[in-house]
Amino acid sequence: MTVNKPLAGEKAVPSKRRAVLLAACAATLAVTVSACSGAASDKTTTKDGFAQAAQTDGAVTVWVDATRLPAAKQYQELHPEVKLDIVSYDGDANGSNYLQTKVQLFNRTGKGWPDVVFSSQNNEASWAVDAGFAAPLDKGLIPADTLGQFAKGANDVCTVNGTVYCLRNDLSQAVLWYNAPLMKQFGYTVPKTWEEYQQLGEKVAAEHPGYLVGDAGDSFTPEIYLWASKCEANHITGPKAVTANTSGENCTKMAKLMDGLIKNKSMSITGVFSTDFAKNEADKVLLMPGPAWYGGAVFKDTLKTPDKTIGAAPIPQWQGDTAPSTGNVGGGTWLLSQHSTHLKAATDFLKWVTTDNAYQGEKAPGFPAYAPAAENWLKAQAASGYFAGDLGALKDASSQVWPGWGSGQFSQEAIWAATVKPGLTQGQTIESLLPAWQDSIVKHAESFGYKVSK
Amino acid sequence: MTATVSSVSSGRRPRGVGRSWAGPAFVAGYVLLLIAFGVLPIGYAIYFAFTDAGGTFTGFSNFVTTAQDFRFVDALGHVALYLLFWLLSLVVFVVGLALLLHRVSVGRVSQALRFLYYIPGALAGAASVLVWLFMLDPTVSPVSSLLEDLGFDTFGQVIAPDNLPVLFTVIAFWTGAGGWIVVMYGALNNIPSDVLEAARIDGAGAWQTAWHVQIPMLRKWIVYMVILAFAGGAQLFVEPQLLSLASVGVAGRDYSLNQLTYAFAFQMNNINGAAAVSMELLVVSVSVAGVFVARSRFFDAD
């Protein structure tokens, strides 16, 4: 009992404790509330088509991926007077959604947005406009004559309701990459049609087993093969409308072609960036349909293919077609934040990084979307002496991208990776997985509020 | 007894003032952090779960919308299966290994084993998952021959959807079980030696001693472990998320409920839906903890 008896003077303590506790709660609440309601209440001016924050002199924050880091550094070297805060992030590679995640948080806290950001994903504008992040660029920030010199259709992925909200960094039109010395050694010619491509694959399997005519192991596989075949799996027909029909002949005939080559092992299913591929198949690539950036990122950097080995030919076309149709595998975009308080400097950086020859024309690893820079880039590639032959096929392909495949808010790559890839690994055919693929596209599109036609 | 306590108490009386503040002072910091990072966020999440983006009360509509999402049932099933594997393996192996450790408690061997068990826990969650990404890739794994013997030639085959519950269990066990083994070992050491001595004199072998004496006396620790492991396991996120990134989406970006919550919040801009799923996880975890605590008389004094 003695233990439980309150000590003298303790009576007053509970009220003090309560006061301390209340004060602590109030302080915590105040901190939380102030953090949540820290939205900028600065004066805004409507100009260039959007409400601009009050402009200041601080550093321009630029978010880039590892590949674009040299671009930002080069700009800094050439413009030492500009205060640049370069932040390296994953560039949303593989649809990581890092930028979107962060912007949602910045929108809540009311601060933190980068001024300019690079993304390797083509569908950033589709959410960044809804999120109030991307600034319109064709309402005064970027001159019309500059916008007019981007390759035809290059900024389609950046255009929402007729307004341009980002600038395309590079085009990712697919071509048929080939190993010129090996083709010569084996006595093969580069196929011009998908039928010839299939026959060559069968021949390679029989005569040179182990060698490859393609790879179907990446999440962007449908964009290389099925898009090129004009498969209507991802036809964005309006701001919130999509047609997803994988049962059409254009889908099934390409699926069958791939299944045959996967079965005879002339087409790999491991993925060009996987450790398996780099270790076991790097020197087995005879042919490889793939985007423009395969030249540098895959053959030169990842697979370490020697100089004067890899050439680019037009992507095959189906017999009866008048010209090839090609897919488009990524191609980065640059976005400018509506919330930027250094719009002039940020816009200058954006313009430089997408159009200036110093980077795009000479150093960029991919085919520039800005046509004058692309001309220069092709000359620089020819002068570098890495490729076998010229890269004219890339230039031709830049206007051959089939327009029936769009960039919606849902990630086609993620859907393919989760739906089709595991089945492929377990020995199922692409043709048998087409219905499941369509089903998954429909469900994902609907969950983002798309009206889906089949 | 009262007299003894009184004498002890009166013996400490000179430090009475300190005593009256020591307890609350020790607890205050914790309580403050609990309020700031536990209670307030939960309150905030409850507010979100029952309102829409404009702050209007919407009843249970966020719960209904998220439960009707095409990924919800799958994610629920994945988490349930994982919890089954994870909790079973935890109880069986942790208790088993702790008993084994206690059995071989001869100086250096015991110390070395305890150290070995504890090492994986020293790696932070994400880092330990990254270690496993290398372990599971036959091309670079130090145990590639073992993987090949099991029929796995590529990373894609290893991370086939059917293998995921087992893989996540192995990763989670390797990361977290070592700490629990050390805790159980400590609890085993607390069992009075005369109790074990009595069991031995009564003719109990190692198995009988473990089953009839040691495990019943570990009951509360096992319950404690299960409660925490359930709450942690239900929030499965890091393992599938990193595996998903490493496999470029093959392992699924919406495998677990927490990943689905993340998708709702940051990809679909539906914070309210995300809060609703979080609430469900909280309610389930607290209910399971409540059942375990009640049935095991966890807070009863011995």
From TrEMBL, chain A:
PANTHER family referenced in this protein's UniProt entry, alphabetically: ARABINOSE-BINDING PROTEIN-RELATED (PTHR43649), DIACETYLCHITOBIOSE BINDING PROTEIN DASA (PTHR43649:SF12)
Gene3D superfamilies membership: Periplasmic binding protein-like II (3.40.190.10)
Signal peptide: 1-35
Keywords annotated in UniProt: Signal
InterPro entries in the cross-refs: Bact_solute-bd_prot1
Residue ranges the record marks as coiled coil: none
Organism: Kitasatospora atroaurantiaca
Statement: the UniProt record of this protein carries the keyword Lyase: no
Protein name, per record: Carbohydrate ABC transporter substrate-binding protein (CUT1 family)
This protein's record includes keyword Signal: yes
TrEMBL record, chain B:
Topology class, membrane: Multi-pass membrane protein
Main location group: membrane
Keyword Transmembrane: yes
InterPro entries: MetI-like, MetI-like_sf, UgpAE/MalFG_permease
Keyword Transmembrane helix: yes
Membrane spanning stretches: 21-50, 79-101, 113-135, 166-188, 221-238, 274-294
SUPFAM superfamilies found in the cross-reference section: MetI-like
CDD domains cross-referenced by the UniProt entry: TM_PBP2 (cd06261)
Gene Ontology biological process: transmembrane transport
Similarity comment: family membership: Belongs to the binding-protein-dependent transport system permease family.
Protein name: Carbohydrate ABC transporter membrane protein 1 (CUT1 family)
Organism of derivation: Kitasatospora atroaurantiaca
